[in-house]
């Protein structure tokens, strides 16, 4: 075989080999990605279940909240997913997310209410506030978030849903008033949303397991 023939053979086999390697690598990556995505989805589901249980008293419901959801549009047309707690088949509480702009970005709050609209619990699940100042909204850093428990639109006038600096009943943080002010606003907005859609939320047919 001449050197020219050998060169031709190399030119043929090398691209073919590279193509097979690339195909095998792509398949492996696709399999790994699929497996990872399933793991991530399961972890997110467990985290959500834990968060939901933190804003409802132990034993408040006897159903799986992740499998009893409804979606309702707020006044801005944004869809809100509501998780419903039931006792003996009757809705006795709801959990959903609400948010307001803080110092460094949106603060997302998960709130739990009984069927009448009274606060059962609240947890900040996402924020970008300053460590050491604004992070006191986290339950692990401060008990401040528990101040919402037991409050409602019925037992607290609208003007009192504010930090004390603004004439309300909620404490502010030294050097970080914007942060608690945003959380109070988010919770109040959530209560207003529930009050305006209460009948729809309580009576709407279940949409199945949350994704």
Present the secondary structure layout.
Elements lengths: L2 H52 L14 E5 L5 E9 L2 E12 L4 E9 L4 E8 L51 H26 L8
Antiparallel strand pairs: 1-2, 2-3, 3-4, 4-5
Q: Shape from CA axes?
A: globular
Give the ordered list of helices and strands. Answer: HEEEEEH
Poorly predicted runs of 5 or more residues: none
Count of discrete structural domains: 1
As a percent range, the share of helical residues equals 25-40%
- Helical/strand content category: alpha+beta
The end-to-end distance, rounded to whole angstroms, is 63 Å
- How are the strands of the biggest sheet laid out side by side? 1-2-3-4-5
Overall mean pLDDT: 87
Give Rg in angstroms.
Answer: 26 Å
Beta-strand percentage? 15-25%
What is the count of DSSP helices, taking H or I runs of 4+ residues?
2
Give the biggest sheet: 5 strands, antiparallel
What's the β-strand tally? 5
Care to give the gist of this entry?
37% of the residues lie in helices and 20% in strands. By secondary structure, it is of the alpha+beta class.
Structural features:
211 residues, alpha+beta, 2 helices, 5 strands, 37% helix
What does this structure look like?
- The longest helix has 52 residues, at 3-54.
- The chain is an alpha+beta fold and 211 residues long.
- Helices cover 37% and strands 20% of the residues.
- The chain starts with a helix and ends in an 8-residue tail after the last helix.
- Strands 1-2-3-4-5 form a 5-stranded antiparallel beta sheet.
